[in-house]
Amino acid sequence: MDGQLSIFETKPRKDITPKAVNVASIPQRSPFRYPGGKTWLIPVVRKWLRQCKEPKKLIEPFAGGGIVSLTAVFEKLVDQALMIELDKEIAAVWEVIINGNHSWLAEQIYSFDLTPEHANRILQKEEKTIEEQAFSTILKNRIFHGGIITKGSGLIKNGENGKGIKSRWYPKTLHDRILAIGYVKKKINFETGDAFEKIKKAKHDFGTYFFIDPPYTIAGKRLYTHFEIDHDALFSLTAQLEGKFMLTYDDTEEIRNLVDKYGMDFRTIPMKTTHHIQKNEIIISDNFGWWE
Ligand SMILES: C[S@@+](CC[C@H](N)C(=O)[O-])C[C@H]1O[C@@H](n2cnc3c(N)ncnc32)[C@H](O)[C@@H]1O
Q1: pTM here?
Q2: Which CATH number applies to 1-86+195-292: 3.10.450.50, 3.40.50.150, 3.30.2350.10, 3.90.1150.10?
Q3: Nearest CA to ligand 1 atom 13
């Protein structure tokens, strides 16, 4: 940029350097391996939800692996959680676990004899019931590279320790996680649908906490089937919420400009990606009284 500093570079940063989070110490409650999953942010989410002792509801409009809703309900940080997801393949898993027969899915995973032939038979079936779709999604998420289930992703070939497609297939663990969710699912609602619609509907819900983790693509890296959303519109909608919110993004110039445009407050957190790349995540919220 011809030696000039952009606004982005001159703006003071509000950094915190939290104690390094040992992700292994955070209970893994989701049946998904989720690219960009927020397990590492759980200690911050706990603080955010503990700021007020009143009964509260959580809405996670871009649920993905749903780690925030699951943790919040398991740890009694909220009384009720609502998860929303648009992707049909991911949504099928939550429809079956939360709204359907979760034990069926748990058993199916536990008893499945994973071979490339058996896996292909499941994945290639065209007309699937919602249960078959749920099972197929879990399978893909475990045996495709990096857990990525978009079109064009491929089967793991050699996997960890040359174990091939079985390298990420932990049937007993998945079975147990799904049964555990079954015990608390009365406190969780799941809806297949569009985050924007649901946020709009709940705009005036004063006692609601919104954990908003939208898809954000950098350098064209596509992790999700639904990856194109209107970020400006999401900021605009978030700024109108009467409840509390936490909005998370990669820390980029585009996002900082939106934070400025809507007069919001933020903090940044350094984190390491699964590929051990150090980057900053930006956390935008309506008040940071709980942070200090
Ligand atoms: C960054 S991921 C969420 C990850 C999640 N926080 C976790 O830790 O597992 C974003 C999710 O939003 C979903 N999504 C994209 N557009 C959506 C929309 N308009 N409405 C609802 N969900 C959407 C994607 O399919 C993806 O699962």
Answers
A1: 0.90
A2: 3.40.50.150
A3: 62
